[in-house]
Amino acid sequence: MNTTGENPVPLLTARDLVKTYGRSEALRGASVGLDAGEILAVTGTSGSGKSTLLHCLAGIVRPDAGSVAYGGERLDELPEKRLSELRRTEFGVVFQFGQLIPELTAVDNVALPLLLAGLSRADAHTRAGEWLERFGVRGQAGLRPGEMSGGQAQRTALARALITGPKVVFADEPTGALDSLATEQVMTALVHTAREAGTAVLLITHDAQVAAYADREVRMADGAVAPVGVTA
Ligand SMILES: Nc1ncnc2c1ncn2[C@@H]1O[C@H](COP(=O)(O)OP(=O)(O)OP(=O)(O)O)[C@@H](O)[C@H]1O
Ligand SMILES: [Mg+2]
């Protein structure tokens, strides 16, 4: 909030999003803005459209109606090639249900975005090890996702989302499988990293302990978004 009381132009803006799956209306006119460097919590009951909103904002799902603007670009209108480039270079995504690559070890999963960006294997591995360390799972570097606990897999997925230094991180229930102490450790690491790099974070959570780390919280109900108020 600046001194005139006006908000800066958001980095990412969704307006009046509509998305229907068969007879299920996941989004019914959802609007939300995310500022550069802002940590925004999205809460709401199960089925209210939180994950669908995140997928539309991250350019993974195209809305049926409404717009998603990122910088000067309309994500809802971009060709798939440019969308995937944006996802690779500017966005980091942690999906609600993990989506680590099952055949790869933790360190290989985390190193993958750097290998795709052209880093050498040795450099990518070194950096991946450092990121696993930040999230307290360096000891699991050699394990495959099937050999990790849910919480260890979530931390590995967070490390993978952050390793490229994205402008925006989309995290769908990133602490859903963690106990309260581990939640605190992971949120501290996530917030610290985001603040240090000026990363904006869209954080879906049903946990008030997690929402308290955000600058702002909005709540979804029936496919639409309502403000909750400033929490920090
Ligand atoms: N790929 C899909 N195919 C069919 N229906 C879907 C799909 N994705 C979402 N839906 C439906 O859209 C609605 C919103 O789903 P969404 O996953 O966005 O909710 P959510 O708020 O993330 O819920 P939760 O808290 O349980 O994760 C639900 O009724 C869901 O069944
Ligand atoms: Mg969800």
Write the layout of secondary structure elements.
Blueprint: E1 12-21, E2 24-34, E3 39-44, H1 50-57, E4 65-70, E5 73-74, H2 80-89, E6 91-94, H3 106-116, H4 121-134, H5 150-162, E7 168-172, H6 180-197, E8 200-204, H7 208-211, E9 216-221, E10 224-230
Parallel strand pairs: 3-8, 3-9, 6-7, 7-8
Antiparallel strand pairs: 1-2, 1-4, 4-5, 9-10
Helix pairs in contact: 3-4, 3-5, 4-5, 5-6
This protein binds adenosine-5'-triphosphate and magnesium ion.
Domain ABC transporter: 12-232
Protein name: ABC transporter ATP-binding protein
Keywords: ATP-binding, Nucleotide-binding, Transport
Your description of this structure?
- Pfam families: ABC_tran.
- Residues 12-232 form the ABC transporter domain.
- GO terms for molecular function: ATP binding.
- It is a single chain.
- The protein has a domain at 12-90 and 166-230: Rossmann fold.
- The model has no long low-confidence stretch (mean pLDDT 92).
- The radius of gyration is 17 Å and the shape is globular.
- With 232 residues, it is α/β, with parallel strands linked by helices.
- The chain has seven helices and ten strands.
- A six-stranded mixed beta sheet has the order 6-7-8-3-9-10, with helices on both faces.
- Residues 50-51, 96, 172 line the site of magnesium ion (MG).
- Adenosine-5'-triphosphate is lined by residues 21, 24, 26, 44, 46-52, 96.
